[in-house]
Amino acid sequence: MQVANEKEREQLKIVIVGHVDHGKSTLVGRLFHDTDSLPEGKFESVLAACKKRGMPFEWSFLMDSLQAERDQGITIDTSQIWFKTKARDYVIIDAPGHKEFLKNMISGAASSDAALLIIDAKEGVREQSKRHGYLLHLLGVSQIAVAVNKMDLINYSQKEFAIIEKEYRAYLKSIGVKPTFVIPISGRDGDCITGPSENMKWYKGPSIVEALDHFTITPPLSAFPLRFPIQDVYKFDERRLIVGRLESGSLTVGDELVFSPTNKSARIASIENWPDQKQGAKNPISASAGMSVAVTLDDQIFVERGQLASRTKNAPFLTNLFRGKLFWLGHEPLAKGKKYWLKINTCEYTVEVKEIEKIVNTDNLKIAAGGNVERNSVAEVVFRVRGLIALDNFAENPKTGRFVLVENYQIVGGGIIDVKGFQNLRSERKVKSTNLHVVENRITPFERNLANGHKGGVLWFTGLSGSGKTTLAGELQQRLFARGYQVYVLDGDNIRRGLNADLGFTPKDRSENIRRVSEVAALFADAGIIVITAFISPYKNDRDHARAAAPNAFHSVYIKADLKTCEKRDPKGLYKKARKGEIANFTGISAPFEEPENADLVLDTGKKSIGECVALLVDYVEQNLVKPVEQAAKKSDYTGGADI
Fold this sequence. Notes:
This protein is an alpha/beta fold. A six-stranded mixed sheet has the order 2-3-1-4-5-6, with helices on both faces. A six-stranded antiparallel barrel has the order 7-8-13-11-10-14. A six-stranded antiparallel beta barrel has the order 15-19-17-16-20-21.
């Protein structure tokens, strides 16, 4: 009967955080000792080890499991220990408080239901104490008790305790956190650990143990919507086993699963025993959160690692833009335009910092707009993902609402997801895969635009030889490529060496040259690429045909420079040869140039520098090819099509 009761007991995860040397490990060591929760002989063995090494006994040694920690006297990793009171079971997570070890503190807090935050009574509220409070709030830990430790060092002063309590309650209130209790304690002497203190009869609140038992149990993960990140796909005999760990929710044989971001669906045919099925044992018919499972499907749809399975109802948010409320740990600052690896469960994506909305000073809560995010700072950042990513608001599902950022194989940041203000791009249509058809696998322009972060387009540069078309095309290509855009330049050098090697420079051949270039450029644009064409294209009729080849993607850019300026530049010496009669049908000399009348953009390179022209070109691309995609993704009336 006792075993059954043990299994039925509640379990809560508590993270212990605080500034270095504020006494976290001492408190936990004392807590375990005073409640008889230590393994048999543990206290005696540590006491004997201290005597052997000729050093005084410290309660923190009961917690320190690494030799390096004892040598340095600080906790450098999270330690998880199972702890019991009469009311329930606990997992106590002792997280490091040293500024350099905040990464481990965050990983500990991220998996906790509640927190116990330690403040040194003699030192008072420190910058790190405020930072830890903000981080707990950032990570969604709403149940927080504060222990003001080392009260023995201030003679158990009620007045000094009241000052600390008032200051820290005011700080937590300013960030939207209400501490459940603020408790004066002495970890070294055991005051208010398991019961009232003779040294602080003025304190009428709960002890640490009573405060922990006051915390409420959050709903079990099985109560959340199904989230089944795919770890891998194995093939045995004729079976394709889709394996992974259920992070939340539950599933049953016969359930229909939808796989994100592909949006394809199939039903669960079986849940396999893993790794081997015992003789005569039957396969289970259901599984719930926390279990690692292998399932087979009734339809052989394409599934791969990183996809997220859910039910059709309450499926995850599908987007290419989201806001991350993050804590930055990187040695190099996080900056707009930089790219990082983002990890959520088994999913990995390349993300770009699209916007740094605000940076929060966790000490004084002052907010700065924009700029770079320095190490140990908190910020709200908008990320753009190539393609679509499946995720959840942290408040709705903590398992798929947290993320980490990686750079050079090191974790450099982490935080929680906020999709408020962004549109769910999941199509309402149901994708079935009973039969394979070409139309089903077609990549739509909308999907290409989302993947690239911009529309495909033809930037048709026209102008005299020497006006600067090739120079500007090359500079623009570099700028756009640096921003992560898909871009390519078509000009006479790469076209006439291959595709149009059979053409000369007669009016007829010039027209055919432009016709072929127009069709190739239209294909580039249809593939979602920004293609820059740098051709003289002197005839209006030919330019009209080029526009007709890609009517919704064509942008006429007139690179303007008068003949005198172009002749003065003459980068290839062509004007000199044309003046001598060595080149026939040379535009501007022996062949006409019909100046564009209604170009979408005119750049006078005789009056503007290369830098000024490129800046105007980049702005034009942002306004006409990038922003429409972002705006369409955010439109509240978006229904899955979007004319972008």
